Amino acid sequence: MIIKINVARVVLFAYLLSASLFGAGFANATESYEVITNATVSEKTLPKTSLRAIFGMRLHTWPDGTAIRVFVMPDDAPLHAAFSKEKLNVFPYQLRSAWDRLVFSGTGQAPETVHSPEEMLAKVASTPGAIGYLTKSRMDGRVNVLQIK
Description:
The chain is an alpha/beta fold. It has 2 domains: 1-30; 32-148, 3-Layer(aba) Sandwich (D-Maltodextrin-Binding Protein, domain 2). The chain is 47% helix and 17% strand. It has 5 helices and 6 strands. The chain has helices spanning 2-29, 48-55, 78-87, 92-105, 117-126; strands spanning 33-38, 45-46, 69-72, 112-113, 130-135, 143-148. A 6-stranded mixed β-sheet has the order 2-6-1-5-3-4, sandwiched between helices. The protein is globular. It starts with a helix and ends with a strand.
């Protein structure tokens, strides 16, 4: 009985270790990406605190008064995980928890989820005040790149 428990612990430890090692590799393997905005957004740079407030759904308008529309990839998308961790310094589940609190309390809305890079580009390009993120290879002249300082 004790041997089975120890074997189970070793197997569990090995699994968790390999998942953490491979998980880190996948996050780093994500292609380079940028924060993008609709072409009508006049902001060219943004402090990291403002970016966190926007994607935390706490900042609702751009300085010119235009409503901010936030677009994100699904929680399990590698690009979403990389963006959340690298740009916002939070895990995707922490963002989801914050959005769920807003929705369930009736005090806010979650961002709109898009399911492909093409949809992200199309939505941000066609929605005034929109913000999202996209790999550099998918970008075109329809969106602006927002520098984060």
